């Protein structure tokens, strides 16, 4: 794990120390309009090293993670006199760390960049692991690079003003990390209430959860094998997300992953003997925290069609990451449509739909 | 050296074998309008595996190595159904291998690509070593990535229709590789006449020359140290190139490098004791092959100003790669302006200007 990840309640001190140690002569901060208003002023007031930094602000929202915004960032770096020794700080959610990471990976063939995630979802997911990129022609993350941030500074102080829905969305990815890591990590997550304002405890379990991802990414940075473990809950989760979008009632990414995990653990029960009492406990936690996702058996063909579109699929079969038990991963599982339909039936029962 | 480089008189057989071995389900060929007319039909007629390949043609010329052409390539890959398992073949000069390499490095965060250089300059320089990129806002290679082609197929059969000026331009980079490698390689290059049509001998010495670059790149892929040896002749060469451009009489890149090598070997004599008889022998070869580059001492301030702009400079001093002798490299040499002016004086003497 060559990438430095700092977990801290004092992010301004951490970034100041990083800049001093790196000896970087010039610093740029990439942020979006929301973060520029709500988070940036706090960091700027607490930091000594960021006073002369040049701020690059782009419009918020995944729809702006595109080639126009990327060109704007390259332009600002160029006009700001950025050299190969300059530093780019990506301060924002996943949209900012994805796009800023790609800008940093490619400007002059690569300058150092640091991610400072301001949402729980980006802290646990996008900011760590080296996947950078932009959307292109309406396809998500179609263009990008594998390039790890030189450092990541993770702090729960940024999350205090987040809507609870955002916190829950990020927490779903943490739960997924617990499921693939093992019972100890998983139990601590299931016993924490994300709606409480216990930021110190959240920082501790966040560190544990991020380190699960880091261990897997170190083993397989380019996603040829075990990194696909991180795909748990996502094949069906993405299908739920697209289904909701098509029916004009979009759901947060993390909610889709939470429901996707329940359905894929059901599949794991059916095909790999995942313990059914563990499935029921997990489903209850998800139902209590996220409520149900509602659909009928008339939606099954559409959902299965959407699963076929997942970009991890290389053939006509649908590829899943499943579990034999908590922490016991099986990548590259293929399931037939009958099993998937049974899992969707059981999911609806578990969600009291 | 993990990158496969094939030196062959039968490039169609080499690419067919590569495609069969790689098992890639879909192939795209990137080329420019000139290459599409003069080289592509020959390859297509001789290859079995390229019959169903999708051809992406962009406008020729370095001015088109830009974000618009890059977006067009991403677009064509997307619309052509390219997946992570697809293969992109870059068939052309340095403009095509640079831009196609960057497209390949970034489409879906990286697909396999193969370079088939059709000019001597791109064979010996751009196609090997992993520097990919595009120009941006008028600055050369401002945006890009370090990513080696999965394979490079080098064949002198492509060069038979090149103008002799193009051949000589590429040969200058080969001479540079000889100078930094050692006396054996260097002697063989100095004893070859690039204006002869001895394609088999050219393929042999080209292989030797390309392998010099590969050894250096393997040692220092990201140009933190010894890779700067490849910069020999380029600090002053780039200044000559920009100077000629500004005065509306552009010179080929390789010619600028050849003259830059003479001047930097002169500097090497002055500051590191490079043998003066070796300098004179080299200068005679360059004069006989490339003729002189003409300027007066009134141009010195402008030339020195241009040397300051070289992107390898990190401070106000001018950074050179010099030689103590053929094959004895000293990177990160700084010279004062008096030495540079003396070297320019001696260069003009050696070129009978």
TrEMBL record, chains A, B:
Where does this polypeptide localize? Cytoplasm
One Pfam family per UniProt: DHQ_synthase
Coiled-coil annotated residue ranges, if any = none
Q: Where is the 3-dehydroquinate synthase C-terminal domain?
A: 170-313
Cofactors needed by this protein, per the record, are: NAD(+); Co(2+)
Known catalysed reaction(s)? 7-phospho-2-dehydro-3-deoxy-D-arabino-heptonate = 3-dehydroquinate + phosphate
Presence of the UniProt keyword Zinc in the record: yes
The residue ranges of the 3-dehydroquinate synthase N-terminal domain are: 56-168
InterPro entries assigned? Dehydroquinate_synthase, DHQ_synth_AroB, DHQ_synth_fam, DHQS/DOIS_N, DHQS_C
EC number per UniProt: 4.2.3.4
- UniProt pathway annotation: Metabolic intermediate biosynthesis; chorismate biosynthesis; chorismate from D-erythrose 4-phosphate and phosphoenolpyruvate: step 2/7
The UniProt entry lists the main location of this chain as cytoplasm
Q: What enzyme category does the UniProt record give?
A: lyase
Alphabetically sorted, this entry's keywords are:
Amino-acid biosynthesis, Aromatic amino acid biosynthesis, Cobalt, Cytoplasm, Lyase, Metal-binding, NAD, Nucleotide-binding, Zinc
Q: Which GO terms describe its molecular function?
A: 3-dehydroquinate synthase activity
Which Gene3D superfamilies does the protein's record reference?
Answer: 3.40.50.1970, Dehydroquinate synthase-like - alpha domain
Into which family does the record put it? Belongs to the sugar phosphate cyclases superfamily. Dehydroquinate synthase family.
As for what it does, the entry says: Catalyzes the conversion of 3-deoxy-D-arabino-heptulosonate 7-phosphate (DAHP) to dehydroquinate (DHQ).
Q: Which named protein is this?
A: 3-dehydroquinate synthase
What organism is this sequence from? Heminiphilus faecis
């Amino acid at each position: 794990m060559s990438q430095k990840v700092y977990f801290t309640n004092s992010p301004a001190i951490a970034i100041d120390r990083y800049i001093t140690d790196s000896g970087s002569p010039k610093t740029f901060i990439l942020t979006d309009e929301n973060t520029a208003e709500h988070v940036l002023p706090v960091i700027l007031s607490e930091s000594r090293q960021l006073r002369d930094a040049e701020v690059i602000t782009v419009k918020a929202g995944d729809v702006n993670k595109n080639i126009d915004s990327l060109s704007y960032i390259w332009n600002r770096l160029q006009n700001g006199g950025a050299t190969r020794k300059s530093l780019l700080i990506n301060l924002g959610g996943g949209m900012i760390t994805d796009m800023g990471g790609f800008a940093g990976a490619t400007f002059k063939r690569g300058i150092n960049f640091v991610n400072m995630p301001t949402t729980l979802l980006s802290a646990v997911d996008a900011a760590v692991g080296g996947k950078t990129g932009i959307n292109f022609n309406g396809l998500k993350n179609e263009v990008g690079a594998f390039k790890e941030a030189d450092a990541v500074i993770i702090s729960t102080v940024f999350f205090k003003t987040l809507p609870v829905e955002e916190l829950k969305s990020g927490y779903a990815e943490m739960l997924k990390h617990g499921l693939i890591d093992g019972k100890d990590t998983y139990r601590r997550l299931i016993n924490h209430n994300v709606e409480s304002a216990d930021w110190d405890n959240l920082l501790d379990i966040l560190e544990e959860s991020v380190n699960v991802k880091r261990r897997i990414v170190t083993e397989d940075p380019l996603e040829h094998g075990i990194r696909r473990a991180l795909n748990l809950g996502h094949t069906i989760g993405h299908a739920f997300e697209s289904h909701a979008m098509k029916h004009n009632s979009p759901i947060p990414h993390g909610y889709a992953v939470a429901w996707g995990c329940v359905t894929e653990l059901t599949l794991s029960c059916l095909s790999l003997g995942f313990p059914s009492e563990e499935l029921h406990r997990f489903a209850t936690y998800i139902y209590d925290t996220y409520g149900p996702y509602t659909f009928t058996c008339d939606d099954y063909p559409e959902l299965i069609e959407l699963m076929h579109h997942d970009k991890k699929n290389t053939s006509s079969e649908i590829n899943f990451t499943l579990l034999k038990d908590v922490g016991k991963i099986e990548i590259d599982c293929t399931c037939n449509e009958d099993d998937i339909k049974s899992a969707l039936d059981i999911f609806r029962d578990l969600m009291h739909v």
